[in-house]
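Dear colleague,

As promised, here are the two records you asked about, laid out in our usual form so they can be pasted straight into your sheet.

NAME FIELD: protein one
SEQUENCE, THEN STRUCTURE:
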Amino acid sequence: MVLIVTRCGHCKKLAPDSVWAELATKAKGQVNIAEVNCEQYGALCKSQSVDGYPMLFFYHAGQKVDFRGPRKIEPLEQFVLRAVAPGVQSISAEEVDSVLKKESVFFLVLYTYSTPQLYLDDVESAAKPLLGTPVVYKSRNPEIFKKFDVDPADGPALIVIKDHETKPFSVLPLSAQTTVPILEAFFQHHRIPTLQQLTAENFPDVMKHPAKPLVVLAAFDMENMPKTKLGEEIEKLTSIAKRWQTSAVRLTDTRPTIFVWMDGDRWSKWLKSMYGIKREDMPTVVIVDHSTQAFGEFCGKDYEVDE
């Protein structure tokens, strides 16, 4: 893992005698920690497409990931531990409930003794770019097949579980025709939760998603919105997102549709410059098509998505 720095204030907070040093100590023996000063090694930083400071790059198994999570020891350590873990991890029947409770999204390979090893190897290869986020598990336990309502007689399958539910969000049968590119596309298509808050950390995953998705973005005036009302709005948007994901319209479009909500006060300047949304317009929804960079007219306070 490499820290890209200059003498900026934010860089100093990750200085060798603080968070960065603590991470190096805790991750010793699992990952190599390095630091690059772009004022000294400008050409190297340019070759790595550095566009701000500080930046955290993680290199593993030929993959490079720009870590944009909180610059605190807990999320950094969790990221490293997940990234260096096996691409596909075994899971027992006893562990399933805790994983369901903890993870908003995870993948699960269900296979049998007769499943060709090549199928599992291909899943392992396709899962590498995820670097453990979300986690990919595997099992051939009949109890786990039953829990997720998958029939072993139908053959091995890769399923995605979202929103802490036992019903698979999507199922991809594994066969000789299920190539690594198909598996990679499945992972990228389904790695985002049904609904999440848009933050600076996950902004690149959502707004710069390689699949150029449709993004349904709800903006709330959180400064003037009671917490109970916010909860109601999020619950409403979650319901809309779930209905959309299973609708006939969605099934005809191979691109993902990502539903997010955001703090309209904190992002007020960005919302106004990008979509012309003002605080008095909130709560409101804008639908952005990343394939054309176009966005639809936003809805008013009684928004609803017409399937």
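NAME FIELD: protein two
SEQUENCE, THEN STRUCTURE:
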Amino acid sequence: MTQSKAGDGASNGRKRKSSAADSEELRKKEEKKRRRLAREAEEARKKEELKRKQARLAALRARYPMDDRELLAELLELGELTGQTVSTEFVPMEAWADFMMVWSFVDTFHDQATLTYFNSAGRAEVPRILLEDAGVDYDFVAITNWAEVKPEYQAAGKAPFGQLPIYEEPGLVLAQSSAIARHVAREHGYYGETAHDAALIDQASEGVADIVSRLIQALFLPLPDDKRAEAKASLLNEFLPAQFEIYSKLLEKNGNNGHLVGSKLSVADVSLWVTLGMVFSRVEGSKDAAAKYPNLQAFLDGVASRQRIKAYLARDVYAAKKE
């Protein structure tokens, strides 16, 4: 009898665990469905809004027989537009309403992302690579006079920390490179398939941030010459080899499938790829040290060979902008 009760208890325990797992799985499915329906509703709303604007524009074309650009120019002349100051004095309200409608319509076609940074590969490179790989239509604004334009960006609320990069999309202005990279990753499918994937991606990304921090300390912070030499030697002979081994083991743990987490490219992969590229270009001998880990080299080659990333590298975008 006692054994029977114990067996029943164990069975009931398994059933409760199974029921809890089923409930969690159901909750995840419902949440996924809710998000999908929300996206579909938002897309439907935008389509309806665009239809209304197109209908209004068609009516305007009947009144103003000219193309969109000429129409906008004509309506702009009806008001005085100077910087951010608009005057409607002596302008018929009907005509001003036409101007505002066409301005809104034209702006519909400029709802693409903008990434603003210096004309170099640096803290904006991870989100930029993600945007490139995802095939996102975005603008890159290369700043060459940050000290001069910084007050303008701050006054507009676009640089709350007084730093670059800055990322913009409809309804969002975002600063801080890591926040930008994570946002772009979430939006375009570079953050894993599950919450556990996301946590592991964050873990790997934080490790990459440690590499960047150590690199900055050794190469860029003001140090006496002898201390600089010591910092570089420690970086090359101790810190970097340890990091190469760590990431080699993470790749091995994930099945050496070319990714740190899961089975597709993530923000952690791109962060490591960008950072090691920077390390190899600035720390002599570091590439040879990394060559001891074939799976790490295969990982780097795999990211570089992705079609859109390969095309991006071939464009040599920073050199082109300097010409």
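A couple of things worth noting about protein two: Confidence is low (pLDDT under 50) at residues 74-96, 100-110. The first strand starts at residue 80 and ends at 82.

Best,
R.
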